[in-house]
Write a structure and sequence with these properties.
Distance between the termini: 64 Å
Structural class: mainly alpha
Shape: globular
Largest sheet: 2 strands, antiparallel
Number of helices: 20
Helix content: 55-70%
Strand order of the largest sheet: 1-2
Radius of gyration: 23 Å
Number of strands: 2
């Protein structure tokens, strides 16, 4: 009898990953794995989760690990706004306004990829807002909604650094790069947020093309229409009332955006930071809430203008409409949150990263070969430590001085880091937003697992990594400026 192996449910997968983290923290603690933080010289060691102190920590923090899991609140807040917009009919009307027939499949694929690539302008909002809308768009033009979810996820995550605009991550990475640059280095001047802009601008189109080709040639043909329950939108021309409601909603949106801009850039500027800047400001920290709140307001205005809403009860119904989706998400997140918290407590990821970095530096082949090894190393480390700023806050102090001694400018090193950091985001279960991706997929296919997602995303990861690295080699060989 042939035994067919299958991946466990996403919640079970995160539980098993937690056990793996616990086991390796115990083993590494026995062997005394210790490393030094390069920026402070402080020694950190792997803390066993099976020790008496580790067990006491977990008992004290099991609940706060769950309630303090950052994506949990972000996703719930985002779904409130999306729930009202969907329930009121705003999303349906907007899609019918923009997409007039099922023949516009290529147009939909292009816009989903493009919006995913530039979504890092607003931080992580693309994960929780664009992806469900992409599923609806793909369904509307007769494509499997799972293809929409996967395509949007790959664009948002796999191309996270590529953008035609300045993203929220650019000034943070540049700040760590500047601080890690040795004072006596010959690379003088400030490392600014635009130090990789030229390369990332071109990368947007290159990575976008790669995602488009893989989606058209591999993903869509491999997802048959009867593979899941497709919740399709039926096209019908917008009625006069719907058009009027959309116009009123647009006015409400413009007023809302004007208010946000006034609170940000006026003389009072209460949405700016203490120093008057936007980095670490209330605007950036609360951007996802502001976006979701705005979507909810516009959806509510549309509902009342189209006469679908008549009392506040209908608005509340819209707020609670995603509740079925939230049930699955909360179960997955509970186990995922424990896994991420255990990994952070044990220091296992940091110790492995720093230990691996020291091993890599022992080779020191020099020049381009070293940069390519660095890209590969970053891509591997990213499989267990996915935070771009978290990794760079440590790795910058290790690699920037070493590469400076080899005559390589810090902007080149940072650019190489960003390639490796982005390419493997889509194939690691340690991605913070993996629970919400699996939840969105579970809405259309109850049998979805991480294996289902990995089966489609590994080709994207490989193609993005190879093509993006080749672009970097070409850019480096031609001595083109990476930014300004």
């Amino acid at each position: 009898m042939k035994i067919r192996w299958r991946m466990p449910h996403p919640a079970t997968m995160f539980f098993l990953l937690t056990l793996v983290v616990v086991f390796f923290s115990w083993i590494c603690d026995i062997y005394g794995l210790t490393v030094k933080l390069p920026q402070t010289g402080e020694e950190i060691h792997v803390q066993s989760l099976l020790s008496a102190e580790g067990i006491r920590w977990w008992l004290r923090n099991a609940i706060s690990n769950f309630t303090g899991f950052t994506p949990l609140g972000m996703v719930i807040i985002a779904l409130f706004g999306l729930g009202v917009a969907q329930h009121s009919g705003l999303i349906d009307a907007f899609i019918r306004l923009c997409v007039h027939s099922r023949s516009q499949k290529n147009k939909v694929i292009f816009w989903v990829i493009f919006l995913g690539l530039i979504s890092n302008v607003v931080g992580d909002a693309g994960y929780v807002i664009l992806i469900p809308i992409a599923a609806a768009l793909f369904s509307f033009v007769g494509l499997n909604p799972l293809a929409g979810i996967i395509t949007a996820y790959v664009a948002v995550s796999g191309g996270y650094s590529a953008n035609i605009l300045l993203g929220t991550i650019d000034p943070i990475l540049a700040q760590y790069t500047q601080e890690a640059l040795p004072a006596m280095s010959r690379f003088g001047g400030d490392v600014g947020p635009l130090c990789n802009y030229f390369f990332m601008f071109v990368s947007t189109f290159v990575v976008g093309f790669v995602i488009y080709v893989v989606t058209k040639r591999y993903l869509i043909p491999s997802l048959p229409q009867d593979a899941c329950e497709i919740k399709s939108l039926v096209y019908k021309p917008l009625s006069r009332r719907e058009r009027e409601a959309l116009f009123v909603s647009l006015i409400a949106l413009l007023i809302y955006v004007a208010i946000i801009l006034w609170f940000t850039f006026s003389s009072q500027g209460i949405f700016r930071g203490i120093n008057g800047g936007l980095l670490h400001s209330p605007l950036i920290d609360g951007l996802l809430f502001l976006i979701s709140f705005g979507i909810g307001i516009v959806g509510m205005v549309y509902g009342f203008a189209s006469r679908r809403y008549r009392t506040d009860k209908e608005v509340i119904d819209g707020l609670i409409s995603p509740i079925n989706l939230m049930g699955v998400y909360i179960i997955i997140v509970f186990f995922a949150a424990q896994m991420f918290a255990c990994l952070n407590y044990s220091h296992l990821d940091k110790c492995l990263m720093i230990g691996g970095a020291n091993m890599l530096l022992s080779f020191q082949p020099g020049g381009l070969s070293m940069l390519l090894l660095f890209i590969l190393f970053t891509a591997v480390v990213n499989l267990i430590m996915v935070s771009a700023t978290g990794k760079w806050s440590v790795m910058a102090y290790i690699f920037i001085p070493v590469f400076a001694q080899l005559g390589l400018a810090p902007d080149i090193v940072q650019c190489a880091y960003r390639i490796g950091d982005s390419a493997t985001n889509i194939i690691t279960p340690f991605m913070l937003y993996m629970p919400v991706i699996l939840t969105y997929m579970h809405y259309y296919d109850k049998h979805v697992t991480f294996g289902s997602l990995f089966k489609y995303t590994w080709k994207y990861a490989l193609a993005i990594f190879v093509v993006w690295t080749l672009l970097f080699v070409l850019w480096y060989a031609l001595a083109l400026p990476f930014g300004k």
